[in-house]
Amino acid sequence: MTNHIVLFEPLMPANTGNIARTCAGTDTVLDLIKPLGFSVDDKHLKRAGLDYWNKVDINYHENLPDFMETLGEKDQLHLVSKFASKDYTDCDYSKIEFNHYFMFGKETTGLPEPFMRKHSEKAIRIPQDDTHIRALNLSNTCAIVVYEALRQQGFPKLDRTHEYEHDKLK
């Protein structure tokens, strides 16, 4: 079982860099669907990802249909959108036989509306107060969703054994 964060035509290098860092720290694959709104050599992208960019398993896809062709029958696609009716916590991500792909839309416009209508049963949302903000930050949203999946999966391959070492803090 592998978790994937899929970014559809991301525009902001800082968001993508932060998401790449989350992917590196959680052993999550990052899928980027072109066109990208920046160069992967962009200094802001590298700065946000720090020295983690080369530690991330990244797949590049030429467009949305190209990405969709890579999905197999053992892959579960989850479309993250504030317009979905099902909460992200209402899904079962624990099945070890599946790869989970969490797709996030472009920062300015989200996922294409026709695509969302066609796959509406795959849409999940993070509850938020829409009267105060338009949307949560993309990198924060990715972290919330991937950590819920990891929690349900028992945090596979993640270190949970750090002991508090008081003497190192002196």
TrEMBL record:
<feature type="binding site">
    <location>
        <position position="126"/>
    </location>
    <ligand>
        <name>S-adenosyl-L-methionine</name>
    </ligand>
</feature>
<dbReference type="InterPro" id="IPR029026">
    <property type="entry name" value="tRNA_m1G_MTases_N"/>
</dbReference>
<keyword id="KW-0963">Cytoplasm</keyword>
<comment type="function">
    <text>Could methylate the ribose at the nucleotide 34 wobble position in tRNA.</text>
</comment>
<dbReference type="Pfam" id="PF00588">
    <property type="entry name" value="SpoU_methylase"/>
</dbReference>
<keyword id="KW-0808">Transferase</keyword>
<protein>
    <recommendedName>
        <fullName>Putative tRNA (cytidine(34)-2'-O)-methyltransferase</fullName>
        <ecNumber>2.1.1.207</ecNumber>
    </recommendedName>
</protein>
<keyword id="KW-0489">Methyltransferase</keyword>
<keyword id="KW-0819">tRNA processing</keyword>
<feature type="binding site">
    <location>
        <position position="80"/>
    </location>
    <ligand>
        <name>S-adenosyl-L-methionine</name>
    </ligand>
</feature>
<feature type="binding site">
    <location>
        <position position="105"/>
    </location>
    <ligand>
        <name>S-adenosyl-L-methionine</name>
    </ligand>
</feature>
<dbReference type="InterPro" id="IPR029028">
    <property type="entry name" value="Alpha/beta_knot_MTases"/>
</dbReference>
<dbReference type="InterPro" id="IPR001537">
    <property type="entry name" value="SpoU_MeTrfase"/>
</dbReference>
<dbReference type="InterPro" id="IPR016914">
    <property type="entry name" value="TrmL"/>
</dbReference>
<comment type="similarity">
    <text>Belongs to the class IV-like SAM-binding methyltransferase superfamily. RNA methyltransferase TrmH family. TrmL subfamily.</text>
</comment>
<feature type="domain" description="tRNA/rRNA methyltransferase SpoU type">
    <location>
        <begin position="4"/>
        <end position="147"/>
    </location>
</feature>
<keyword id="KW-0949">S-adenosyl-L-methionine</keyword>
